[in-house]
């Protein structure tokens, strides 16, 4: 435990020396944070490899209850990606947001703080500590989102994030108040089925769902991820939203007898988030917004896993439960690895070209081969293609859904299966679009021509994450014992996952696939290269604008989801043989933020403006309010 | 000196405060009230605790010397002698103060407090002083009288604190004094700035700051 506490301290303080240094603050922060991450990973690994959970009692808070930190398998499982990804991001930050950038010091301070808050959150075993860490995480993340606060769009994103996250925290306060005897541990049998238990679960779902970005509480996520610096987006998308999943996992672990509808609701929300997340991603023109919507999709996959696991537990099929929880928990790691990688790679493309707009990029692969390769690997993994890690967790989920077909009378898991297949196909389409538009073809603007490859400090973290994706994908058996232990903490046990899901066969086939690909590459490699211009369809002067754009590439699938995406088009009317130059525009607005929340809040603000009468500006009147309140309270107590 | 006598004097100062129109007199009375309250713990026989004794000495020093010094300086600077045309007139204030004191006597009886060994009139006096402070804050127009009202309000809180003085850590007590000092200090600066900005210390001008 002292290892973990040292790590926590190092991570939290990583940004402080940089405040007093004129330069090299980024390097110092990265070294401190990496050191902390190594120590913390060692502590987590010990628990995951079978050491007994350790705990530390904190001194009592002013409210009386002593705080408690417990490093159990669940905590260790979530701690590992937090520390790994934040260390990668800190190293990446040296080159991405150097001392020349505005607010670099504050950024590093808040970055370390955010990582530490999440590390604390993973082990928090007492309601107050949990809420404190939760709130610290939210506030620090908001500060990080607001790094480029000169941009009005960023300020709006930060504001939306702050309001939404506090809404979630409010729900958590209410939920924890409903816990019997304020205990933050296993719930008594029968609680889950009671009305109080129902309210508790729904409030938890709201509080944790807002953080995790579950549809329809996802709307803070795309603007915040797009506005934040890329390594912060990576941290937020890779691990911060997983803290919502951590909360749900804790609730699941505490509940001995979850009702059937809990699992069904989680799985249903997962299906909706998964499909709509990827559908909205297809409609985006902003690289980082696109990735942010993919986070919603992946949260959907994780929720489907949790839902399947819960259903398995309620139905009394431990195999389903193990496969479902295993898929969800493994996807937490996998998503942290490949989404972190994708955001870092997207960040270095954005950093080089100075724009996030897909239609201003293009042809970056030639000038940034490393970044392009890293992005391709991340895209490969997120689409769930073998042999990388995204495949393994989706494989577990597929297996679980197929087993559910055998085990239960009703073919309900067909919904999961078809959703998963649809998500996979759409994700592939979306990343074909993202990679193709950004890295292939011809540069679409001058900014995309003048790009340069990212410096080494930005390439190394990406390389490390590629390695993580490959290791988790090719040798899932390595982490299987740890995964078994974590799944065991959720109150289910069946055969080990490695045998259930045939991890050894999977590794064997994966390695074979890689070998085959390498052989093909060697065999097909051209002996000599001749440079000629490609056939230009007879156009005398082809320009970069004669390429697929982000909208045209995704036009067909977007049209298929027209009922949900409601794309807004500004279509010119062309007349005559030689029409005048015209503009065509299309964009996909977020349904919840732009169609429901924003107009609703505007209406509320108009209604609340009536209350401004109360704010007269006269100091004595304000004091009178205080006096009247005091009198009222006194009389209330007496009468 | 018995605590009951002190409490009676404090009640009397309350009435004097709401009835006076001269700012100089109001400051004098508020200071006198502060000193009376500073002596209160000793009168209650708590002088045997060294830290309470130290606190009493500090209270007398701050309320009897530092605060009047700051207030007089502010008064010289803004050159105002009287509070003219208050929101609530002097007679009405006096009546309201009487009503407030009566209410405090009733309330104090039914409040779920455990006064223990404290003098029986401590709680009503605290409530009445609090009420008087609020009355001054609400009804007066000049920033300086507002500060006096704030002082009186703090005196009421201090009196209430005496109820728990044996249990309350010295930290909280010094906290009250510090709070008071900072309050007056800040108000002094604010008064100066209000005058500099609006050429008057009438707090009605603050309403212009509303967005």
Overview of the structural elements:
The complex is a heterodimer of chains A (639) and B (211). Chain A is mostly helical and 639 residues long. Chain A has a domain at 591-638. Chain A is built from 28 helices and four strands. Chain A has helices spanning 2-12, 16-20, 25-48, 73-96, 104-123, 127-145, 152-178, 195-212, 221-227, 230-240, 242-254, 260-282, 287-315, 318-353, 364-367, 369-382, 389-407, 413-439, 446-449, 456-474, 480-488, 497-500, 503-524, 550-553, 555-560, 562-565, 591-608, 619-638, and strands at residues 54-60, 66-71, 568-570, 585-587. In chain A, strand 1 (54-60) and strand 2 form a beta hairpin. In chain A, helix 4 (73-96) runs antiparallel to helix 5 (104-123), helix 4 runs antiparallel to helix 20 and helix 7 (152-178) runs antiparallel to helix 8. The radius of gyration of chain A is 26 Å and the shape is globular. Chain A starts with a helix and ends with a helix. In chain A, 51% of the residues are buried. The model of chain A has no long low-confidence stretch (mean pLDDT 88). Chain B has 211 residues and is mainly alpha-helical. Chain B has one domain (3-209). Helices cover 73% and strands 0% of the residues of chain B. Chain B contains seven helices and no strands. Chain B has helices at residues 3-19, 23-43, 50-78, 90-110, 122-139, 143-162, 170-198. Chain B starts with a helix and ends in a 13-residue tail after the last helix. The model of chain B has no long low-confidence stretch (mean pLDDT 78). Classes of the chains: A mainly alpha (639), B mainly alpha (211).
């Amino acid at each position: 435990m002292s290892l973990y506490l040292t790590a926590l301290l190092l991570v939290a303080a990583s940004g402080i020396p940089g405040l007093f240094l004129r330069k090299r603050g980024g390097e110092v922060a990265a070294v401190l944070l990496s050191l902390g991450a190594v120590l913390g990973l060692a502590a987590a690994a010990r628990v995951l490899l079978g050491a007994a959970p350790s705990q530390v009692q904190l001194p009592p808070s002013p409210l009386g209850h002593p705080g408690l930190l417990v490093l159990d398998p669940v905590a260790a499982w979530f701690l590992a990606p937090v520390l790994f990804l934040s260390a990668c991001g800190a190293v990446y930050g040296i080159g991405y947001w150097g001392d020349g950038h505005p607010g670099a010091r504050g950024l590093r301070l808040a970055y370390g703080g955010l990582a530490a808050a999440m590390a604390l959150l993973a082990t928090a075993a007492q309601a107050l500590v949990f809420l404190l860490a939760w709130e610290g995480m939210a506030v620090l993340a908001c500060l990080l989102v607001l790094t480029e606060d000169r941009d009005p769009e960023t300020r709006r994103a930060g504001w939306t994030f702050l309001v939404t996250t506090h809404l979630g925290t409010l729900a958590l306060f209410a939920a924890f108040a409903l816990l019997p005897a304020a205990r933050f541990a296993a719930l008594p049998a029968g609680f889950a089925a009671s009305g109080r238990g129902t309210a508790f679960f729904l409030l938890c779902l709201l509080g944790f769902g807002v953080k995790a970005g579950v549809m329809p509480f996802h709307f803070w996520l795309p603007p915040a991820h797009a506005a934040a610096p890329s390594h912060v987006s990576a941290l937020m998308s890779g691990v911060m939203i997983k803290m919502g999943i951590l909360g749900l996992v804790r609730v699941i672990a505490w509940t001995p007898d979850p009702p059937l509808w809990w699992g069904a609701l989680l799985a249903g929300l997962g299906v909706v988030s998964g499909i709509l997340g990827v559908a909205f991603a297809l409609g985006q023109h902003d690289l980082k917004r696109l990735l942010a919507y993919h986070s919603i999709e992946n949260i959907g996959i994780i929720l489907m896993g949790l839902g399947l696991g819960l259903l398995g537990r309620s139905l009394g099929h431990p195999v389903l439960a193990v496969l479902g929880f295993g898929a969800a928990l493994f996807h937490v790691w996998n998503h942290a690895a490949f989404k972190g990688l994708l955001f870092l790679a997207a960040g270095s493309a954005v950093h080089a070209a100075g724009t996030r707009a897909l239609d201003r990029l293009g042809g970056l692969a030639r000038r940034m081969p490393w970044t392009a390769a890293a992005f391709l690997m991340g895209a490969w993994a997120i689409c769930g293609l073998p042999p990388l890690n995204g495949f393994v967790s989706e494989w577990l989920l597929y297996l679980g859904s197929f087993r559910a077909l055998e085990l239960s009378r009703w073919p309900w898991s067909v919904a999961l299966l078809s959703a998963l297949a649809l998500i996979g196909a759409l994700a592939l389409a979306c990343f074909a679009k993202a990679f193709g538009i950004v890295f292939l073809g011809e540069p679409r603007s001058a900014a995309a021509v003048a790009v340069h490859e990212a410096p080494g400090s930005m390439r190394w973290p990406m390389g490390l994450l590629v390695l993580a994706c490959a290791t988790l994908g090719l040798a899932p058996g390595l982490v299987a014992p740890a995964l078994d232990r974590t799944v065991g903490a959720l109150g289910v046990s069946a055969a080990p996952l490695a045998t259930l899901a045939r991890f050894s066969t999977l590794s064997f086939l994966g390695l074979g696939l890689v070998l085959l690909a390498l052989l093909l590459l060697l065999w097909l490699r051209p002996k000599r290269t001749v440079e000629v211009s490609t056939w230009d369809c007879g156009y005398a002067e082809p320009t970069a604008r004669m390429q697929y754009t982000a909208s045209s590439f995704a036009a067909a699938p977007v049209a298929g989801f027209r009922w949900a995406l409601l794309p807004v088009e500004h279509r010119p009317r062309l007349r005559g043989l030689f029409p005048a130059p015209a503009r065509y525009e299309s964009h996909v607005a977020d349904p919840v933020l732009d169609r429901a929340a924003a107009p609703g809040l505007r209406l509320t603000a108009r209604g609340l403006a009536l209350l401004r009468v109360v704010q007269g500006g006269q100091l004595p009147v304000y004091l009178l309010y205080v006096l009247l309140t005091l009198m009222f309270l006194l009389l209330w107590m007496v009468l | 000196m018995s605590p009951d006598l002190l409490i009676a004097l404090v009640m009397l100062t309350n009435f004097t405060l709401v009835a006076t129109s001269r700012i100089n007199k109001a400051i004098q009375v508020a200071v006198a009230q502060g000193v009376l309250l500073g002596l209160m713990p000793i009168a209650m026989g708590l002088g045997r605790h060294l830290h309470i004794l130290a606190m009493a000495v500090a209270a007398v020093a701050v309320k009897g010397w530092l605060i009047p010094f700051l207030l007089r300086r502010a008064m010289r600077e803004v050159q105002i002698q009287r509070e003219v045309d208050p929101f609530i007139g002097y007679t009405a204030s006096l009546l309201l103060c009487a009503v407030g004191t009566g209410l405090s006597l009733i309330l104090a009886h039914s409040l779920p407090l455990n006064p223990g060994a404290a003098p029986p009139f401590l709680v009503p006096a605290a409530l009445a002083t609090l009420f008087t402070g609020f009355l001054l804050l609400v009804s007066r127009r000049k920033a300086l009288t507002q500060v006096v009202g704030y002082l009186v309000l703090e005196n009421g809180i201090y009196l209430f604190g005496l109820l728990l003085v044996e249990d309350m850590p010295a930290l909280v007590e010094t906290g009250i004094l510090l709070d008071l000092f900072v309050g007056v200090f800040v108000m002094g600066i604010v008064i100066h700035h209000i005058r500099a900005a609006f050429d008057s210390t009438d707090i009605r001008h603050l309403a212009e700051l509303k967005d």
